[in-house]
């Protein structure tokens, strides 16, 4: 998220969300309100690399009903991760958030962000295009080979 410093309350430590449009065009948000900004992943990895410890992405994904957006955002984040590795950052792994739609404590079953859609009534799981994209990236160990999958 783009944040703005504010000198009181929790915002003094963490800032508060800045939704102003002066940060540039093309800002994208998940249905939960979280901003989707793949370059931020690279920035975070670069900032923590100075600790000299191996890193692992343990939750990355977004809540959306737009499957094309889900695949594009996954590809963009994997590209940022690839840039980090190419720059020599010690990133050991990547875990998408999450394999299938699930129950979220604050939002129940209303948000959808799994690689597989989950029909909560029947428990049927249906792979989404982003699942195919992630599988292709993993098989090829490269994002470029999976570009065509995301376009489908």
From TrEMBL:
One of its GO terms (biological process) is carbohydrate metabolic process. Keywords: Glycosidase, Hydrolase. The keyword rRNA processing does not apply. The keyword Hydrolase applies. SUPFAM superfamilies: (Trans)glycosidases. GO terms for molecular function: beta-glucosidase activity. InterPro entries: GH (IPR017853), Glyco_hydro_1 (IPR001360). Gene3D superfamilies: Glycosidases (3.20.20.80). Signal peptide: none annotated. Belongs to the glycosyl hydrolase 1 family. This is Family 1 glycosylhydrolase. The lineage of its organism: Bacteria, Pseudomonadati, Pseudomonadota, Alphaproteobacteria, Geminicoccales.
